[in-house]
Design goal:
mainly alpha
Length: 169
């Protein structure tokens, strides 16, 4: 499994050689075309990363999780999954770290492990994705994008719980 990416790269290089394509020039040209997009998206990405870091280091994220957790537990979400549900729209790497913690404490094949895995797979890092894509095209008023994305995340999380329960784990 770990050889898939190196094999793909070798295959592409062989294919480019057969087609007599200048791979290096194509790579440099593509990188030059990407620079203006990076210039447009970098400020919004930096702002989002700084805000996320501020929320996590100040303790505001934990306070918010503690405040919202009882309501989410009454709605049927186990307490162990609440931080994952709340952090996933902001940070994929933090959500993966929480998933690892759930695996370590509950087990990967447990209800919590399966529900967390499905939840992670059925939701998105909404604010990161929006900052990249909407920032790259210059959208400053996303209108209903955030509400629709958060609604889809709620449906994804609820579906993850239902599917994990149906699996009988």
């Amino acid at each position: 499994m770990s050889l898939i990416l190196p094999c793909l790269i070798v295959f592409l290089l062989i294919y480019a050689y057969i087609k007599k394509a200048d791979v290096y020039s194509a790579f440099i040209s593509g990188a030059l075309e990407a620079l203006p997009m990076l210039y447009k998206t970098l400020p919004s990405m930096c702002a989002m990363m700084a805000a996320l870091s501020l929320l996590r280091k100040s303790g505001a994220m934990e306070a918010f999780t503690g405040a919202v957790s009882p309501a989410l537990q009454k709605a049927g979400m186990p307490g162990e999954l609440v931080p994952l549900f709340l952090l996933r729209p902001f940070s994929g790497s933090a959500a993966l770290a929480l998933l690892r913690d759930i695996f370590d404490t509950c087990g990967a094949d447990s209800f919590m492990g399966v529900a967390a895995s499905v939840m992670l797979g059925s939701t998105e890092t909404i604010f990161y994705t929006m900052s990249v894509y909407l920032g790259s095209i210059g959208v400053t008023k996303p209108r209903y994008c955030i509400a629709a994305s958060l609604g889809a995340a709620i449906v994804g999380a609820a579906s993850a719980l239902v599917l994990a329960r149906m699996a009988g784990v």
